[in-house]
What we know:
This protein is an alpha+beta fold. Helices cover about 15% and strands about 25% of the residues.
Amino acid sequence: RTNNVRINFIQGDLFNTCHLQPPTYDLIVCNPPYIPTSEIDRLQPEISYEPRIALDGGRDGLNFYERIIRDAPSYLKKKGLLIMEMGINQGEGVENLLKNSGNFEIIEIVKDYSNIDRVMVSRRIGSV
């Protein structure tokens, strides 16, 4: 209300939900599962309360990024932003997926308090 904007929060399995209306979104923000499968059983004890499905990003931790980057252009307006949290040492992999898609330009890579690349900010380009 303060900024006079309308925000809709949608819960679903990525883009598999009947509530999404393409291409009407200015912004997609996500924190997908990004832990490589082989590392899940070695995580710190305080992470053990999380369901495995919320952590497991597949063999290299990039499975969900591939799906998101493939499908997001259908839902984002031209110049819409895609902002994704990522795991340690995944910046290059996520960046390559974005560049190879031909649908996004990278705007910024935000580091966390430990100076680790943590958030990838990209913008939709093209006519897809």
